[in-house]
Amino acid sequence: MNTVSTTAPMAVPASSVLDQAVSKVKWRILPLFVVMFIANYIDRVNIGFVRSHLEKDLGIGAAAFGFGAGIFFLAYALFEVPSNILQQRFGAKAWLTRIMASWGVVATGMAFVQGETSFYVMRFLLGVAEAGFFPGAVYYFTQWLPNRERGKAMAIFLSGSALASVLSGPLSGALLQIEGGGFHGWQWMFIIEGLASIALCFVVWFCLDSHPRDAKWLTDEERNELTAVIAAEQKERDANKPGHVSAFSLLRDSRIALFCFIYFAIQLTIYGATFWLPSIIKKMGHFTDFQVGLFNSIPWLISIAAMYMFAALALRFRHQQMWVAIALTIAAGGMLASTVGGPVFAFVAICFAGIGFKAASSLFWPIPQAYLDSRIAAAVIALINSLGNLGGFVAPATFGFLEQRTGSIQGGLYGLAAASMVAAALVFLTRKSKTAA
């Protein structure tokens, strides 16, 4: 007797479907966000390479430079929460494209500043334009990746800032040597780097999707599985915080204040090093702008390796707060050591500090992400980032004031070391029993 065998196709296990979806998301979204962050960070910090040129051509001294470099972050803090709320309304695709286009226009306009007042105005407008990008990206990951993947994704994303710091030195140094067309080298630097961001916004518009349900590059099964897992994780977090149903109630939570201070301390050290490192390098010898840029890349190359090393350790030995504290302690030690010896020793010490402050930045975000109610996560993430980023105002403004009044930034370096140590101690107070990172 002949029998006909009808074998139904085997169903793909849900875990395999999820892994496939996550892999596709990481390969498509993370490289795009890294490139976006590189452009964002270069347009934000390239001002550090033109300090001497602004003083020579426009008469902008150390105190004015420090205030102008930092006022960006005041605007960033004022407009970041509204920007992130608007992203939820208009969608990530439209809003992140808008952010890139506007900051590219303003970054290009930096080439046309005429003195202190226009310098302040343009730096403030750049902060307004960029507001919302970073917390928007962080919140975007919560909508696209399961909890277990976000720490690694944040490390990859934040490597964009380290890569930008590596690239911005040689790139800006090379552009500073361009002369012609009625513009100085520093003007060409702003024009070319700003126009690059404008061009990138077209790529973002065509490649970015606002939600997993919009992703035609995922199969129906992958979209459904990814959406279901992320929704279940968010529901579980919400269930653990029944009293936290509004932004106002969360803002009264002491942990939110701790998150803000810890991130403030991290950013204080990062931007203190970022804006003043080129000046420290110039004291090491008679270097061209390009050579200064090459030296400036060294601490950030080291920090990239440190970020991945710490991310791997935190994944294997789960205790997020401990790893953040270790990283902050390393940062404090490096900044403290930079106050002794000459410029060369200071440079080496800051290279050591870079191991800590960049790793701390990437290790920090999974802690508040695991704590926040998803219904107000976007606004509170923006709040933490905006208030924390005020460190980017305090550090350069204080360093500029100290250098102009005393001829030294040593007091500022002591302050950075102290802030990092306090933050290292306070990070343990963010621990919680059920949903600790």
UniProtKB/TrEMBL annotation:
Pfam family, one: MFS_1
Record-annotated Major facilitator superfamily (MFS) profile domain positions: 29-435
Superkingdom, taxonomy of origin: Bacteria
Protein name per its UniProtKB record: MFS transporter
Gene3D superfamilies (UniProt xref): MFS general substrate transporter like domains
Record membrane topology: Multi-pass membrane protein
Localization in the cell: Membrane
Organism per entry: Undibacterium hunanense
Membrane spanning residue stretches: 25-42, 62-83, 95-113, 119-141, 153-176, 188-208, 256-277, 297-315, 322-338, 344-365, 377-399, 411-429
UniProt entry keywords in alphabetical sequence: Membrane, Transmembrane, Transmembrane helix, Transport
